[in-house]
Write a structure and sequence with these properties.
By secondary structure, the chain is of the alpha/beta class. Helix content is 38%, strand content 19%. The chain contains 8 helices and 8 strands, in the order H-E-E-E-H-E-H-H-H-E-H-E-E-H-E-H. The N and C termini lie far apart (92 Å).
Length: 299
């Protein structure tokens, strides 16, 4: 056998061996991938619930987080945190993460709580009251129906949650921007709907700050519901209005208005976060609000 023929046979054997090894690897990889696919399961963060609202004339999606250990058959009842802009692609996931983390036994900052994320449909419609500013009327043609949304919360949403889930009397609401405006309106007009308010970068500029002129039961000496109010704002500057206003100033004016209350049952904390802006403030602000609501007693 010539040297060329020997080299040829050796080369063929090498090619065949390489092909077999490649084929085996491919088959194993596909089998392993198939096995992984078979054992993969969805990561479930919470529940998706629905409520048909007569007040709003539409069906609303609710994202629900139930705390670890939640059992419909035991006697334990939980605080409820209502989250505006609570869609899965908005604030629900990262706020739930904060609630879960802060309720871990080794952190113990927040009691285990139910989170109700109210998925957004039209926040300009739901979170604003009518405005006299013609420019804003034209720019936001669906705006001005917060009264219907507040009625939805009061008459439908809270009773629905209280009936279906194991809740106690602690009710918190969290919202930012126009959501903070809605919270401010609820606080001043229907303060008993919640006993903890997380108001972040509120759009007080709406209707040229007219909400700051509202009288309210919370300002009276006989207001007797213990209510904790956390107001936060970042370094956010001028508001998107023709009439000049500044976000930080408006938030501070709101805090000062509430602090002037004659009631002994209000606790207010104003938190200025100069390292944050309108886009980044919600997460650190909510974390800070938990420390305000649930101070850990030093031993």
């Amino acid at each position: 056998m010539t040297e060329e023929v020997i080299k040829y046979h050796k080369m063929n054997k090498t090619i065949i061996l390489s092909f077999v090894l490649f084929s085996s690897t491919l088959v194993f990889s596909q089998a392993n991938k198939s096995k992984q696919t078979e054992t993969s399961k969805p990561f479930v963060l919470g529940l998706i619930d629905e409520i048909q609202s007569k007040e709003l004339g539409e069906k609303r999606i609710l994202n629900i987080y139930l705390p670890e250990g939640y059992n419909a058959d035991d006697a334990t009842k939980y605080p409820v945190i209502y989250l505006l802009d609570g869609s899965a692609d908005e604030d629900f996931i990262h706020i739930v993460g904060l609630v879960q983390f802060n309720s871990f036994e080794w952190v113990n900052q927040v009691p285990k709580s139910i989170v109700v994320g109210i998925a957004t449909v039209d926040r300009r419609r739901d979170f604003t009251f009518p405005t006299a500013i013609e420019k804003d009327q034209k720019s936001f043609p669906t705006s001005g129906h917060s009264d219907q949304f507040i009625a939805f919360i009061e008459k439908e949403l809270q009773p629905f949650i209280d009936k279906k889930y194991k809740t106690n009397n602690s009710k918190t609401i969290i919202g930012q921007s126009l959501g903070g405006l809605l919270e401010t309106e609820i606080l001043l007009k229907k303060p008993n709907l919640f006993n903890k308010y997380v108001i972040v970068s509120p759009s007080i500029w709406w209707d040229n700050g007219s909400i700051l002129n509202l009288d309210s039961a919370i300002l009276q000496e006989n207001f007797n519901q213990q209510t904790d109010i956390y107001i936060a704002v970042g370094k956010e500057g001028p508001t998107p209005t023709k009439i000049p206003r500044v976000m930080e100033v408006d938030a501070n004016l709101l805090a000062e208005k509430i602090k002037a209350s004659k009631s002994k049952h209000l606790k207010v904390y104003f938190d200025y976060l100069p390292q944050e802006n309108h886009a980044t403030i919600l997460h650190p602000a909510v974390s800070n609000s938990f420390r305000f609501f649930y101070p850990i007693k030093q031993k």
